[in-house]
Amino acid sequence: MSASAQLRIARLAATPAVHRAFHWLHLQQPRLRQWHLEILRIPAPPFGERARAEWFLNRFHKLGLANPHIDEAGNALAELPCGASFLACHPERSEGSPHSGSATELGAVSPDTSSARLATNPVILLSAHLDTVFPCATSTQPTEIDTRILAPGACDNAAGLSALLGLAAAFRHAGLAPAVPILFAANVGEEGEGDLRGMRHLFTRSPFASRIAAAIALEGGGSSAVVTRAIASRRFRVTITGPGGHSWADAGTPNPILILARALLALESIDLTPADLAGTQPRTTLNIGHISGGTSINSIPSSATALLDLRSTDSAQLQEFESALRRTFAESVPTPAALSVEIIGDRPGGTLPGDSPLLSTLRAVDRHLNLRTEPSLGSTDANIPLSLGIPAIAIGAGGLGGGTHTLQEWYDPTGRNAALRRILLTLLDTAHLAAEAP
Which of 10, 221, 307, 409 is placed for a possible disulfide with 399 were both Cys, Cβ 3.0 to 4.6 Å? Predict the structure, then answer.
């Protein structure tokens, strides 16, 4: 953390427009809670996020954000245009700069919405994923017990989604115009077999792909942990097929379920150590998350399938263990059974450098707000930008949560204000740094 970062944050936090945004967030917690409940009432299973994306599109329209739309991948997007007035808290900027202006407070000048400038400006991405891990038949109807909200997806990621909308509303209410545009994204495909497809589109094929200077992903609750290291992962669908048949008449025919069971047990021979939870050594994990196959009790199945998740903090070790996994399956499947190992997920890894300006900004913000900065590792939407060398973090939206990825999931938004202020200040300063970059 640099002295200049601390000074910038102190100046930002002292501006009247930022005070207005903080005040709005404080007073409008009931509105954020109502949005939270409305979001949960719209199921968003993997590959079924459209209805929730349309709800966000409607909210973006009502907030008066620029260019609200749903893109080809299904992400709901909108922009907060930039303005010249950010110089009010950065008097060190010289006169005649392309961003200079005569404003007396941050956000007081109308945003610069000229099409030429908006088409070339860098943008800062603030995102939260729409999808849950739960299949389409799962009820996500919320229940309230005291301050807690109980529902599948209540924390992951309705907490992030309601914060995304609250921050957009606070910016609009306060008249905050950042140094470069902020792109708000309620994105698809973070969970499971979604394989980060929403983020992949934004960073590789969308009109914003070359413009995103930094990315902040809102992920669940909490106000201290921040993901700065992305865990790489590969996910596989392993299928073993055979001729099948009648349990009596065709007895002795190779049984794909038995073959698959023996192959999965053989995976225990793969040495996944060291499992260094402190993060000082590479760590690799393997999970068998789902098994299926067969049609009836008196039929020899014609196929059996397992879904596997392989993760590592080291890309080379990930490749090494994938080779060992494929070798183990190949050696375990006799003829005439057939083996298929299909990659259904491939999340790249990456690391935010310790001297990154984004991390320096966050540390300065946390010091100003008396919060802890706890860098951690995880598998989030930040994987994609980090793998591309673009500064990115995944950060909690405040409050407390538990039971994540279970039917007993819950979220308590009490005390989330500090986290929302943290995100807002980090966004504004990151936008300033993007505008300053050559």
Answer: 221
